[in-house]
Structures are given as C-alpha cells and as structure tokens.
Amino acid sequence: MSSELKFENHENENGFNQKNNNFNSKVKVTDLISRLNQEKKKERNSNIVLSVAAISAVTVFGIIISL
Fold this sequence. Notes:
- 87% of the residues lie in helices and 0% in strands.
- It is mostly helical.
- The chain has one domain (2-66).
C-alpha cells in the first residue's frame, strides 16, 4: 500500500499520469509508412548509383587491359 501511495505522489509531482501520457504520444501509422517509403527510395537510388559506378569501373579496367 505504501508503494502505491509513493507511485501516485510521483505521478502528481511530474504533472501528468500514465493515461494522459499515452493519449498525447500517439504515432500515426501513415506517417511512419511514408517515412519508410522515402527511406526505401533513397536507399534504392544510392544502390543504383553505386552499381553504375562499379560497372563503369570494371568496364574502364577491361578496356585498359585489352589495349
């Protein structure tokens, strides 16, 4: 019982309780999905650039060796 009182006092000292904290900290799933899609696009673009650079390097190296 004393631990319950301490917990209640702690909540009151901080100015909020657990119920209000959960209500104010909701996250929109649509926002998370849009961020995920943006990150996927950035990663895909960087992978494409890296692949093109690697293929170009191999091609140039092949041309130099064939001379």
